Amino acid sequence: MSTSSPVETAGAATATYVDKRLGSNRFLGRNLGKVFPDHWSFMLGEIVLYSFIVVLLTGTYLTLFYKPSMVEVLYDGSYVPLKGVMMSEAYESTLNISFDVRGGLLIRQMHHWAALIFVAAMVVHAFRVFFTGAYRKPREFNWLIGVALLTMALAAGFTGYSLPDDLLSGTGLQIIRGILQSIPVVGTWAAFLVFGGEFPGTDIISRLYAAHILLVPGLILALITVHLMMVWTQKHTQFPGPGRTNDNVVGYPLLPVYMAKAGGFFFIVFGVIALISGLVTINPIWIFGPYTPDQVSAGTQPDWYIGWLDGALRLMPNWETVVAGFTISWNIFIPSVVIPGILFTGLALYPFLEAWATGDKREHNLLDRPRNAPVRTGIGVMAITFYGILWIGGGNDLIATAFDLSINSLSWFLRITLIVAPPIAFIVTKRICLGLQRRDRDKLLHGYESGRVLRLPHGEFIEVHEPINYKELAVITSKTDYSPLPAPEKTDADGVKNKKYLIQKIQHKISHFYYADDVKKPTAAEIEAAQHHAAHDAMLEAPLHEYEDADQISTFHGGVLHHPGMPETNAEQVAQQENRSTT
Amino acid sequence: MTDITPSGHSSDHGNQPERLGYSPVADIPHKPRVTDIDPKAAKRAERQVASMFLLSIIFVILFVVAFVGIDKSTAIYIPVLGVVGALQVALGFTMGVAILLIGAGAIQWAKKLMPDVEVVQQRHDMNSEPEAAAEAAANYQRGKEESGFVRYPIIRRTLIAALALFPIPLIVLLRDLWITPPGESPEEELSRTAWHEGLRIVADGNFQPIRPEDIPVGGLVSALPIDIMEIQEEEHNLNARGKAAIILVRMDPDQIRSQQGDNWDYQGILAYSKICTHVGCPIALYEQRTHHLLCPCHQSTFDLADSGDVIFGPAARRMPQLPIGVDEEGFLVARSDFTEPVGPSFWERS
């Protein structure tokens, strides 16, 4: 029936050839029509993947020219201001990439921009996953891989940032040395081993290089592969909507729509990165100059994703204790090791903590609306607030200079805010979520406020509520009502002591914290009662000419209210109306 | 037209053809797009997509032309961007647009011409069927029995111990990441610098020895030991510079409230380490009126008129002071090495 072009015939032959050896048609038959749900926020993860591909491509190009060596050489390239300056070969080769290799600067800037976008998109993607509860069963493993990817991305970013061996990045390494040295017991040795002796030494660049081009990207590549395979196997989550349930997946098939959109999006991300990199300068290392450990410039800033750690270092009070002749630098160890450690551990464990605390063991393929999980949303906003203040702290000198503030007062303000603001953010967020839940409940019961204000014959003004449309109805009714876990008994019915009492008590308390305030969806009876009520409203607002005695009223458009026999109140009017219908 | 692709373009949702394995979502009214109804609009969309692909080809050619034709040292002025490298901008722009257009074309194609009707697929529980689980359990049992893993506890335990220990060589091998010079320890290396008695102080930059009168009251000079370049050439690294860097400040001797040692200044000239005691950034932000030294990295503030004590910020230790004097020729010299380690704290120091 169908006519095939020579290309198709050849394609089919190839497919058969491969299939006979690998059984690939089994996979293709099952998967070419695989359905992917559509939502703009699902593109965030795609941006991560695509910018990573750009990073890999551009990074490979850069390795062709870059020399990871700290041997001091005399610069004799085409950038005039640095001619005759002693610098490391690493810095020299980066200058050569920027000024002597045609297109080298473009690729270098694409590498940097793509890396920044990679981390940024990853963070926003994580927000999306967190606030929609996409990490819940069965996707906890993928959340863990995501957290590992995030740490790897930071590692990749930092190791790469240091490679040009310019003054700015070298100062970053100096700070890393200080941080390593602050680790109790093993810190000094750790620093000496990492740097091959004293700072800066001559080993660190080539060591970072090995990590940056082999170890870290290899791990990222492996983790991304597993991440995507899991998404593939478990099928993507979807947002609630008409026809969407926990047991189906609604969207577009892989071939052709999803493939065209996702594949096209790769080129968009790639193209945008190339455009930005061609037009906007990033990391102009030639301005910073080569690294030397006795120089620094004011207003130094790390890449954006390290800013919060720098802020933590800045805001920490200067605590240090000497115990039995040994020094513990709390002022460095806490902000740069303990706090990130706690944050990342908390991030990794959160899905498991939440599932345990709430006793939720179901599979979740339908995403939560953030308002329907007020405590989770609150915790997320709290963490973002904490992070945000540290991030602001990372730029406290710039802020103080720009707004003419005292750096000391600003630091103190941020120190206090860091403790006070997150809990406030939590409470406010939770309240907003509950308010939105109430509004959803109202919408189900009474419809939405149409904005149409009516004046009733007796003078009362009412706003007409209209029933919500089917899409919104599907979204709102997707909410799952949760109840706190019941309080545990100390002994069971036979008087046997409950050994798990204490742990169950804690679980009960936390689950209470999570769900006690949850605004339940209206029951069928409540909806019916509300509809009854709505029928009344509809009757009350019916145009007056529909009344049997409408002819007795000359006009009500102009607001004539008191006509002989007109009801004075709603109730009277209703009573009158009902009287009429019964008689 | 072939009949391979089931068409999704139907103005009437009810007539959507069934597709393999799934069906359009019921109960969702489908609003046809202009390209579904109007063949002219569909033709227009087709032309748009093809033009984007065509333009992409043109931009690739332009890229090659720019690469060959524009000299890498040519600078041009572009509004907003300022003066920029012409080659850099041309390459970025042509490459970016060429790639972007492929994406835009593909997405336009998908949005205008491919079916826009959502379809449904069923999900299945992630857990495997009971038979599969039973088979896995049976295989495990068989493996356990055939290997005798439980039957031979001594094999089991020695294996576990061996597996636990085999990474040790891999970790031990990391020890020589720092080839430690004989008799050295990190503590000792961190505790001494290139300074010693009588060593001349030279200004950073011109490496000329400094006379006290070269430094005005209120002035600050970054300085190094006179032999720093020789050390650097001998050691092939910047380690000595990273520890020995100092700053010299001069203030009215009456304003010096305290010092780390008796008369460690010379006529109001004080020498302090330049390396911050917090995490090691070099410091040279000095406010002469207050005698405060501010670290640009984390804003630790030290009072140089008061033994270099910390008055604000995350640093916990004062800036180490270097005792100085002058030699017989009247040049500033160190009177000894620092008496405490410079730079960030570490575990072994007290």
Describe the structure.
The complex is a heterodimer of chains A (583) and B (350). Chain A is mainly alpha-helical and 583 residues long. Among the domains of chain A are: 45-225 and 254-308, Cytochrome Bc1 Complex, Chain C, CATH 1.20.810; 542-583, no CATH class. Helix content of chain A is 61%, strand content 6%. A two-stranded antiparallel ribbon of chain A has the order 1-4. In chain A, strands 2-3 form a two-stranded antiparallel ribbon. The longest helix of chain A has 40 residues, at 407-446. The relative contact order of chain A is 0.08. Mean pLDDT of chain A is 89; it is low at 547-564. Chain B is an alpha+beta fold and 350 residues long. Chain B has 2 domains: 13-112, no CATH class; 189-334, Rieske Iron-sulfur Protein (3-layer Sandwich), CATH 2.102.10.10. Helices cover 34% and strands 15% of the residues of chain B. Chain B has helices spanning 34-37, 39-69, 86-112, 130-147, 153-165, 167-172, 186-191, 228-235, 239-244, and strands at residues 75-78, 82-85, 119-122, 201-203, 220-225, 246-250, 269-273, 285-287, 292-294, 301-303, 309-312, 321-322, 324-326, 332-334. A 5-stranded antiparallel sheet of chain B has the order 4-5-6-7-12. A 4-stranded antiparallel sheet of chain B has the order 8-9-10-11, with no helix packed on it. In chain B, strands 1-2 form a two-stranded antiparallel sheet. In chain B, a hairpin with a 5-residue loop joins strand 10 and strand 11 (309-312). Chain B is flat. Mean pLDDT of chain B is 90; it is low at 1-22. Classes of the chains: A mainly alpha (583), B alpha+beta (350). The interface between A and B is large, with 120 and 104 residues.
Structure at a glance:
The complex is a heterodimer of chains A (583) and B (350). By secondary structure, chain A is mainly α.
